[in-house]
C-alpha cells in the first residue's frame, strides 16, 4: 500500500483557500482579527467562510485563531524570559487573565507552570527516556500504553505514524505495515479523509494542536464510529519533533444527542478524558518501541 501525506498526491479541494486563511491568521494574530477581514482576504463572504472553515477542518475559525496564539505563546514561554502578561499581549490577548484561562484549557497547566516543565525537560534527560531505560522499564511502559482504553500513537515531524498501541490494531484489524507512514488513513471514512488531511496539513505547517472528530472503521462489524482526536507535539533537545495523540470513541455520546461542538469544547468531560490519560502516559509513549 502506498502511503499518503498532505501535499503529496492528495490535496483537499479547498486547501489553497484554507492556506490563505491560515496565513492571514499567522500574519495578524498579534492584534484583533475580525471575521470580515479574514473573509475579504479569502474573497468569501463572512457566512460562507465560517461554513467553509468548519467544513474543511471541523473547527470554527475563532478556534484556529486561539490555537495559533497558543502555539506562539508556548514558543515565547520556552525561548524567552518575557513575563506572562507581556506574552499575552504579544500574541493578541489584551486581558492576561483571559489568556491564562485559555492556556489552562489548552494545556491543563498555567503558563508559568508549563514554562517550568518545558525548561526542566530541556536540561534534564528524563529517567525514562529511551536512552536510559532498562529493557524491563521499556516493557512496563509499553504495557501501560497498550492498556489505555483509547488509541494512542506517535508520529514524526512529517506526520508519519511511528507507533500505535494494541487498541488501534485490535479495532482496525490492520497489520503494522498497513498503518505505518500514512497508511492509517485507510481506516478513515472516505468522506472524512480530505478533512483529516486538511487538519494535519495545517497542524504540520503551524505546530498547532489537533482537536477534531473523525470516523474510523471497526474491523469487528465494518461499522464506522466517531472518535475524538487529540494530538500535541513535543520538541526534544536535539530539535526533533514527535506528535503524540489519542482517539476516544464518542459514537455513543453523539448518538445520544451530544453535538460535535459540545464534545470539542475544552471544558467538556469527554474532551478532557484523552489528554488526562495521555498526560499520565506521556513517559510511556516516550518509551514505546517505535516502528520506524
Order of helices and strands: EEHHHHHHHHEEHHHEEEHHHH
Would you tell me the structural class of the helices and strands?
alpha+beta
Strand content: 15-25%
Give the averaged pLDDT, no decimals. 76
- How are the strands ordered across the major sheet? 4-3-7-6-5
First-to-last CA distance: 16 Å
Largest sheet, strands/sense/barrel: 5 strands, antiparallel
User: Which overall shape is indicated by the principal axes computed on the Cα atoms?
Assistant: globular
Radius of gyration: 19 Å
Count of runs of 4 or more consecutive helical residues: 15
Given as residue ranges, the uncertain stretches (5+ residues, pLDDT < 50) are: 1-13, 124-138, 271-292
Number of strands: 7
Residue share in helix: 40-55%
Note down, in words, how this protein is organized.
The protein has 292 residues and is of the alpha+beta class. The protein is 51% helix and 15% strand. The protein is built from 15 helices and seven strands. The chain has helices at residues 15-28, 35-42, 46-57, 61-79, 84-90, 96-107, 111-123, 135-146, 166-172, 176-179, 193-206, 251-255, 260-264, 269-280, 282-286, and strands at residues 5-6, 9-10, 151-155, 161-164, 210-218, 223-235, 241-249. The chain has a five-stranded antiparallel sheet with strand order 4-3-7-6-5, sandwiched between helices. The longest helix has 19 residues, at 61-79. The radius of gyration is 19 Å and the shape is globular. Residues 1-13, 124-138 and 271-292 have low confidence and may be disordered.
Amino acid at each position: 500500500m502506498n502511503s499518503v501525506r498532505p501535499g503529496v498526491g492528495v490535496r483537499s479541494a479547498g486547501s489553497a483557500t484554507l492556506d490563505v486563511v491560515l496565513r492571514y491568521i499567522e500574519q495578524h494574530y498579534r492584534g484583533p482579527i475580525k471575521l470580515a477581514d479574514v473573509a475579504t482576504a479569502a474573497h468569501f463572504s463572512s457566512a460562507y467562510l465560517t461554513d467553509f472553515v468548519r467544513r474543511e477542518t471541523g473547527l470554527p475559525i475563532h478556534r484556529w485563531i486561539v490555537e495559533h496564539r497558543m502555539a506562539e505563546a508556548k514558543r515565547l514561554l520556552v525561548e524567552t524570559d518575557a513575563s506572562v502578561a507581556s506574552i499575552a499581549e504579544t500574541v493578541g490577548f489584551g486581558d492576561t487573565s483571559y489568556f491564562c484561562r485559555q492556556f489552562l484549557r489548552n494545556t491543563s497547566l498555567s503558563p508559568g507552570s508549563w514554562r517550568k516543565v518545558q525548561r526542566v525537560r530541556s536540561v534534564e534527560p528524563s529517567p525514562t527516556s529511551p536512552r536510559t531505560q532498562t529493557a524491563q522499564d521499556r516493557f512496563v511502559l509499553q504495557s501501560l500504553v497498550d492498556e489505555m482504553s483509547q488509541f494512542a500513537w506517535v508520529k514524526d515531524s512529517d506526520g508519519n505514524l511511528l507507533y500505535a498501541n494494541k487498541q488501534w490494531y485490535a479495532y482496525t484489524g490492520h497489520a503494522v505495515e498497513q498503518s505505518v507512514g500514512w497508511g492509517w488513513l485507510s481506516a478513515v471514512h472516505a468522506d472524512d479523509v480530505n478533512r483529516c488531511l486538511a487538519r494535519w496539513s495545517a497542524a504540520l505547517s503551524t505546530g498547532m494542536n489537533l482537536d477534531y472528530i473523525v470516523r474510523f472503521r471497526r474491523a469487528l462489524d465494518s461499522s464506522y464510529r466517531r472518535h475524538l482526536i487529540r494530538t500535541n507535539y513535543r520538541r526534544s533537545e536535539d530539535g526533533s519533533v514527535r506528535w503524540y495523540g489519542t482517539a476516544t470513541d464518542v459514537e455513543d455520546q453523539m448518538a445520544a444527542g451530544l453535538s460535535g461542538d459540545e464534545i470539542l469544547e475544552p471544558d467538556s468531560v469527554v474532551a478532557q478524558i484523552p489528554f488526562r490519560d495521555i498526560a499520565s502516559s506521556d513517559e510511556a509513549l516516550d518509551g514505546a518501541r517505535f516502528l520506524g
